[in-house]
Amino acid sequence: MSGFLPVDSLDSPRFCGLATFMRLPEAQPGARLDAAILGLPSDSGSPFRTGARFGPQAVRAMSVMLRPINPYRGHVNVFKRLAVADAGDASAVPGYLEESLERLEASLDALTSNGVVPISLGGDHSVSLPALRAVARRHGPLSLVHFDAHSDTWRSYFGGKKYSAGTPFRRGAEEGIIDPASSIQLGMRGSLFRWREVGDIGWHRASRFALGRGRKRCSHIWRFAAVLIWRRSLAAGRFMRDRGLAGPAWVRWAETRRYQSKVWWHRSWR
After folding, report:
1. What is the pLDDT of residues 121-157, one digit of tens each?
2. Total structural domains in the chain?
3. The domain containing residue 210 runs over which residues?
4. Which tens digits make up the pLDDT trace of 55-89?
5. Do residue 4 and residue 134 come from a single domain?
6. What are the CA-CA distances from residue 60 to residues 49, 86, 189, 231 (Å)?
7. Is 233 helix (H, G, I), strand (E, B) or coil?
8. Are residues 152 and 264 in the same domain?
9. Percent of the chain whose predicted confidence (pLDDT) is above 90
10. CA 151 vs CA 6, 146, 170, 266: distances in Å
């Protein structure tokens, strides 16, 4: 047993105590952890609607409803096997994106340099870049599994700026911290600026690709799941909007195969 167990909600009501992720204990200096929850509360890279800086707080507030045992995966209680705690939030400089990215990276690096796996809560999509940098510094180039409505691989945004919520994965590929040949982006949809941006590789081929390609080339896989993957009825407060999927049935595609959706990956990564 890890000793880092959530508060028992059958003993203490969920509306009591500090709102840590899943009611996990707060991380203490010197604690030996396998993984840590870290908020990345920055939305200075958002090209449209701000407010994602409050994302970590909102996720924690709702996460108190989660129970620790998964009945669909052998009744595993991951917190009895791994030491996981909530490390709070990284700092940011509101309105100054590059300075914010530096601060976020420093907080992430404090975890990865001690062998702790960061489980980060954003934040707009620009916070992915400091997370990739910190993890790749320890493990080398990463395979990216990216669930989103948009590829976030623009060359630049507004005034030729290199850093925004729409550019982190291009920057990661340019910096050599993402291995494009072993990475995939799932759920891409909606309207485009240019017709050559994406290509449809098909549902079944994409599923085999997602499950097998990264394992063949890289020993470490970094997953990024954006709230934009959900349809608006399930995530109304997101900073960008696009038409189409995805609801719970889409996420269960590997088991049910009921929802036949297009799966896109970026042409520049072929």
Report:
1. 999 999 999 999 999 999 999 988 888 888 888 888 8
2. 2
3. 141-270
4. 999 999 999 999 999 888 889 998 998 999 999 99
5. yes
6. 21, 10, 29, 21
7. coil
8. yes
9. 45
10. 35, 8, 9, 7
